[in-house]
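idk why but the lab printer keeps eating my pages so im just putting this in chat instead. protein + nicotinamide-adenine-dinucleotide:
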Amino acid sequence: MNPKSISKQTLMRLPSYLSYLKSLPEGDNEYVSATTVAMALGLNDVQVRKDLACVSKKGRPKLGYVTEELIKDIESFLGYDDLNDAIIVGAGRLGGALMSYDGFKEYGLNIVAAFDVDESKVGTEICGKKVLPMDKMAELCERMKIRIGIITVPAHAAQMVCDMLVKSGIYAIWNFAPTHLKVPDNILVQQENMAASLAVLSAHLAEAIKKKGL
Ligand code: NAD
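predcted complex ->
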């Protein structure tokens, strides 16, 4: 099965399975079952069983999966063993922070350069990655076969940047700007919505405070 044929919910749960499996001490956990994973992460047993069956056919009755094999199968399913080059547009505070983070390679993402309209930033480097002028985007994407674009520009500029990315041959966009992007059907936009996460946190906090009568 390939990642396109399973649900987005399953795809979004797989990284937490992986992180749990990788946290298990080596030696003591040769085998792991869906039930163990479900209990550790507070998830539904049947759900986890189904999710794992999508990525690995190597589960054994009563024993479960060989932990190392399951880790490899999930990584390979998620494409972590296959590094994808990406570009960032908007080398500001957030763009710079993402460029400085070394850990994306573990998830198969390699940020190669950034683009910005600010002439004072163009020509500089962030963690060894160049900030380039916007008119170099199409040529770089074509030459390096880049298919992932990350948007970290202000909301008002995001649609224009998105259109430029699509014209440059980008197929998958990770958008941090708080705005809805219009794209052709063959382009995937993953919206990073911090406002939604904060709304959940703040609703929980309000409920907890109400219960305590504070
Ligand atoms: P910032 O002002 O520090 O950086 C924005 C960068 O985009 C600047 O370098 C600017 O020159 C560049 N830019 C502006 N218009 C452009 C264009 N048309 N083409 C190319 N580059 C352009 O902003 P920031 O704080 O890094 O936030 C960036 C985006 O991420 C915003 O949409 C913001 O709402 C969102 N965001 C930021 C944070 C955060 O923690 N900073 C968190 C969540 C979401």
